[in-house]
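Batch 3, record 17
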Amino acid sequence: MTETCSIPVSGMTCAACSARIQRTLEKTPGVVGAGVSLMTNTATVDFDPAATSPERLVDAIRGTGYGAELPTPGLSAEELFQTQDVERAEEVADLRRKFWVSAGLAVLAMALSMPMAQVSPDAVHWILLGLTLPVVFWSGRHFYTRAWVAFRHRSADMNTLIAIGTGAAFLFSVFVTVADRWLVARGVTPQVYYDAVVWIVTLVLLGNLLEARAKGRTSSAVRRLIGLRPDTARVRRDGQESDIPTSQVVVGDEILIRPGERIPVDGMVLEGTSTVDESMLTGEPMPVAKAPGAIVVGATLNRNGALSIRATRVGRDTVLSHIIRLVRQAQGSKAPIQRLADRISAVFVPVVISIAIATFVVWFDVGPEPNYLHALISAVTVLIIACPCAMGLAVPTAVMVATGRGAERGVLIKGGEALERAGSVQTVVLDKTGTITAGRPSVTAVELVPVPGDATDGSSSTGAVTRDDLLQLAASLERRSEHPLAEAVVEAAHGRGLALDEPEAVVADPGKGVTGRVKGRDVALGNRGLMQDRGVDVAALDALARAVADDGATPVFVAVDGRAAGLLAIADPVKPSSREAVGRLHALGLEVVMLTGDDRRTADSVARAVGVDRVVAEVLPDRKLDEVKRIQAERKVVAMVGDGLNDAPALAQADVGIAIGTGTDVAMETGTVTLIRGDLLGVPQAIELSRRAMRVIKQNLFWAFVYNVIGIPIAAGALYPAFGILLTPAMAAAAMAVSSISVVSNSLRLRTA
Amino acid sequence: MSLGPQIVVAVAGLMAIIWVNWYFLFSSAEPALAAASSGKTQRFTIEVNNSYSPATLRVQAGRPVRLDFHRVDRSSCTEEVVLPDFGIRAYLPTQQTTPIEFTPTTPGSYEFACGMGMVRGKIIVEDAGDTKQ
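Prediction for the assembled complex:
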């Protein structure tokens, strides 16, 4: 059994170095094979872990006089972001120093470049050269080194353009300074461009500085999510309480959370009641009440009560970790709209260099005197004004900001493609149960048999039966049943604080109802069929039953001692926010369709309550997919909204599958968009965010494209013959810096979407 | 005035344009193959220094690929690497080696690039039968 490890090696300069290290490694005991790459500065070693270790291999390499270090083990997302922050801060500080130095020199150079009578031009040129040297060899050094590295790998980027542009102007100026007398003797006025070099470097540095700072903000949302997890957790193990790092919490630990603290991991409440602010994950502003048995999610904020929870998911398995992973994945994806930008930027730099050369040739051959100066400066201006960065940044920055912003509001968009499709949705198909409605039946009304003259409340002709009595009898009868409707009845009784009795002789009649004895009374609970079987006359309840059904609820008759006593209306209530959500979808100009397996009457009543445009009722669960296909056949871009489990095939068929969560569920992988919050308001949010993101992307691409298409010809001198307009290299540098910053800033506007 | 310098500049310019486009766009380095000793996983070490070296990799479909990105530059341009076809965006701390693993299943050409798409590399995925190991 062998293992492989890669060790970065530093200090190698030639093939002899790598060969020497390789020989040494091969002679080291336990090494099976070794390869050392000079190009990648890496030693790849196959070794027998029983005989040696990566640490010993590093020592062996160091013994040859070269530097080596072990690859650092994987860092957590949080640590990585911290490292990234530190590195970015260093880069910004470095750029700022370089910028200020060259800015100071640029002002001096500009002053010295003014025509001055007292000092000879010759002396001024030498002073200017002295000012320019630190700018080229210190402030702007990285442009040249990076351009050179890229050149060796047959690639070219922004650094290439700046290096050639400033390099040409600088070398020309040095030549003029040195050969001053020679030029004067030949009747040529010596002309230098040191100030252009200094200004270009200064302005590009300023652009890079602002861009580096702005780019750091594009990932601020993910950073904020990562920062939500508390570092420590108060754990009770074997009766001992102690604060331990959150990373050491294991499943099954009992964790204590005081009021005002964040919950460290996912868990279930063991003791205590409190309200928990889940807005940071779900976007839901209202705190959620938690009692023993309730599920709590890591990173949410415990508000007013002390809680003790049992850890159920820790580390990578928590909801927060899933969210962060999904957002990072989304940010690693590519939007189809980016393909054009990619194709252009792949050939951009060589094409710009070609245009610059052509510009030089045209000015030299047909331009006015002094032709060589015009040729040189126009070519340099072309190189400097071209901005491949704006093109490259246009799409990724917007995708980064939009997906991060979505995550902050509980809307997980699975990447650039999802964003693009969600932005073009025309029809939204909503599944009814669990999406528009809560998906959990509950008792919406308790009605007694109407009595002439006393139709509102109190007793009835059955004698001393109140609404509470009726509910108490029904719930007592149902308390051992697991039928969803029975659970609704029992829950309603609990909700009213009614104590239940133990039922006797309970007989369930599947599809009809249940009968039995409670407190010595015969109770029957069920549909019309059950009442007919039992010979109970329910004519007095007909009008009520019809009204209940029209409201979209199911009437359940209750008979006591063989006589109709009243009925319970049981319905799957519409979520409070559904109507508002549908209204917002309409405001976005979308058609809203409701899909349900319910009968038409119930479906219509729900549809009326929330205001959807179209209802497709009585759809069997496995036919939902066909309905989505049918709407797609109308040439509509369809978003299907469902629970992500039963509706998975329909979600997959739709152009955009929006899986609606339950706040704590980690079924986030289904759907192109996942709403962590259980209500529908996330649907208009997701579509609106996607539309805004697409608008920003299109603006960015348009701007980046038009900027280059207009800027490059002007820099080349296209306006000179007609209007005499020529740009200076410094103006080009300013335009370039503004161009790339404006793209990043435009994307950052999405942070408030 | 003679046209001599004009013709020389025009010809030199044309040749320079041809050379620039050939050098950057059409002459590509040989794709790198995974180290033969690496067993089941196809491993590469890629140095990140304002560019990827090697920038073109050839791998076999269906076998796991591990790319060790060793970043030496300090430019924020290359601080992230993105493999859009595999849904990967990873931050590469400088002076460190960051491993990235995935298994390509479909032959084809897949790109990897820095976070801004300016620095690029290519992974050529071939049918297992096509590449001799």
